[in-house]
Structure formats: C-alpha cells, structure tokens
Amino acid sequence: MHRRTFLHSAVSAPFAAAALSRQTPPAPSGTAESCRADVAVCPGDLDAYFTEEKLRAAIAPVDVSGVTFEVVAYNFPSWHPSPFMEERFGKGWTEYETLKASRPLFAGHLFPRHPLWGYFNEADPHWAEREIDAAHRHGIDGWLIDWYWHDGTMFYHEQLENGFLKAANRSQLKFALMWANHHWKNVYPATSPDAAATMLPQRHSEVDCLRVIDYCIAHYFREPNYWRIGNALVFGLFDLSLIIEQLGADGWKRASDAMRARVRAAGLGELHFQANHVYGGHEPRLKELGIDSATQYHTFGFTYSRPPGRSPWGEGALMTIEGWKAAAVKVTVPFFPDCPVGWDDSPRFGTGAHVAVDRSPDQFERLLRAAQYFAAPRVSPSHPAIVMLSAWNEWTEDHVLLPDTIWGYSYLEAVNRVFGRQR
C-alpha cells in the first residue's frame, strides 16, 4: 500500500535468500561489480544477521508458557478485479500486473516473489476458503483488512464482501477493518512515492464519518466473527493525523462520539478505535482523542524514509523492537507490537525503491518471539496479548505470509511454531 508516514524513522531489511529449507545465514553474494558504494549494503552482510544473541540483547526473554496470544495479520485486498481500478487500468486489472512486470535490480535480488498458488482471485469464496484454512492452520487468529472508503467511493471491498464473508469456513478466522484513510496514489508503477499522482484524495467530514459507521453496521459489525477487544468492535484508523488535520481535534471528538453512539443504538455494544500507523505527533493525546489502542502497520518502509538502496533485514528487526519500546512509552493507550515479514517495493518504484535484503524465516521467527516477550507482560483485564503481523499478502511491498515461489510455506510455518502450539 502507499499509505506511508512512519511512526518513527523506519528501517530496512536485506535478504539474498538461501535455499527454501535453509535456516542458517545465507552466503555472501554481493561483488564489487554488483554492489556500488552508494547502496547501503550488499546481499550477504552476515554482521547484520538477526541472531539469537541479538534477540536476547534487544529484549529480555520472559516465560510465555501460560499466555494465550491473539495473532492478527494485516490483509491488503488488491488481488482481485475491482471496478474502480478497472475503469482506470482496464478490464480484469489487478495489482498482480505490477508484480509480474517487475525485475531484479541487482545480483542476488531474489525478486519478484510470485504466489506459489498462482495468480488467484481472492474475491472468489473458494480461494478465500483456501486462504482462511492456511491462516487458521498456521496459528493466525484473524485478519485486519484494509478498507477503502473515500467520501462514499469504495474499492477493494469485494475481497471481504464477495470472498471472505461468503466462504464456508469463515468462522475459523476473526476479521476487522482498518480504514485506510489516506490519499490513493498511482504507483503502478511510479518513480518514487513523491512522484506518484493522486488518483483519489481523502476528504474527511463529520457527516462522512457517520456514513462510514452506518455502512459498517449494515455490512460487517453484526457478523459473529467480527474481532472484538474487551467485547468492543475493533475499527482501525491508518492515518489519525489526517483526520485531525481535516476535522480538528474537536471535530474528530464529535464524530467519534457520534460513531460510538450509532453502534450502541444498533445494539452492538461498544466501538474500539485503534490507531494503526500515522499518529502525526498525537501519541501523548491518543486517549484524550478517543483512541482505545495503538499499533503499527509495518515498522520498515525504507523507501519512505531513506534514499534508494538496500538495508539488512536484521537491522530492521532491531529497529522494530526499539520502536515498540519507544511507542509504548509515548502512547497513552495499550500498544501492540507488529512483526513485518520484509520490505521491497521495487515493483512500484523500480530503482527508486529501498530494499530490505537477506531476510529469512529463522530471523522472522526470532522477531515473533520478541513480540511475545514484549506483549506478555502487558496483558490486562481489558485486552489479551495481541501480536500483529504485516502482512498476509502485500506482494508489491514484499511483506507476505502467503506461500511464495522462493520461500514456500516457510514463513507460515515459523508463525505456527511460535503461536500454533496454543491451538
């Protein structure tokens, strides 16, 4: 997705991948010819590898044997034809086309990574059933689905409404919405995030906030598997700062209070607002602004925070853990850690991308354990130990848990080793 203003200075990750089953650091593959001085790192930077020793130095291990974790993966639903996008790019277009057109940028760049299942239509309930089954069997409890509403214009909702909600096995997963309330840009491709043209601006109003919540009450909130925290319906906000900028703090408070009242009047209980990524400096005021919890959507994002180049995934893992700690101190509400799989948006930005290299399932598994150590001591009567994963299917940014043509099911198996035991 192109919704990027990061909570803290983001970090990048590298991986020139090893063989599918390898669990040891990949051999160096960069050469003087293939790695120029102006890039951050060559593939094979073993000093940056996220080892067990680095994990223990970054966060103190705690006993998690008696803790039940709730594991929720972000889901970016752009992998099906959607009329809004078809009007602009042609009948049948999906963002798969951007992935298919991408090419490796340097020696050892194992990208693009294609879906192991082929280019399937996620809005088909039969494919949705296969995705739900894979998530459930590997220790994932739910999806937080990116939801696009721009002053009444919707797109990408077909995955949820035609696929997930019509799947025979949908009860195996919880789901909730993250309102991806950012300006929508044309990155299919673009030379850089700043150069991407705006296709659909986001304009908030108090009236529109009520239209949003009315639609959700009518279409989603009554579903028995809608995700709740402390018995309250979770509704995520990607960019809280944009709402505050356009409505003002008082306007947002009026809108959010009215949204809560609509949910109560519908007999659905309470609404839980979650700040998911862009806080805009409002971290110390989240509780005052009516926010109930906070997390992040991907703690890497080098293209948006660094010049074009490469950085090690291991560096990103350490910066992620430090980011959790810093955010938990700043925010005035419960904070839930997020574990990113990778980062590579070169399908969208080509040589303008900043790529995380040298990622591997064993390093990701250590980051999952770090999230356990972080979340377990923060359990309270109002919320369980929640761990977020980014993401289920961000193919054109290379954070994907779904099986791909390089790693197969290895990342899902890592999730299952850490969290599947509680099933």
Describe what is shown at a glance:
The chain contains eleven helices and 16 strands.
Protein model, in words:
There is one protein chain. With 423 residues, the protein is an alpha/beta fold. It has a single domain, classed as TIM Barrel (Alpha-Beta Barrel). The chain contains 11 helices and 16 strands. Strands 1, 2, 3, 4, 7, 8, 9, 10, 12 and 14 form a 10-stranded mixed beta sheet that branches. A two-stranded antiparallel ribbon has the order 5-6. Helix 6 packs across helix 7 (240-265), helix 8 (313-330) runs parallel beside helix 10 and helix 10 (361-375) runs parallel beside helix 11 (410-419). The two termini are 31 Å apart. Residues 1-34 and 36-40 have low confidence and may be disordered.
SSE arrangement:
Layout: H1 52-58, E1 69-75, H2 83-89, H3 96-101, H4 125-137, E2 142-150, E3 153-155, H5 158-163, E4 174-179, E5 184-185, E6 198-200, H6 206-219, E7 228-229, E8 232-239, H7 240-265, E9 270-278, E10 293-294, E11 309-312, H8 313-330, E12 338-340, H9 346-349, E13 354-357, H10 361-375, E14 385-390, E15 393-394, E16 399-400, H11 410-419
Helix pairs in contact: 6-7, 8-10, 10-11
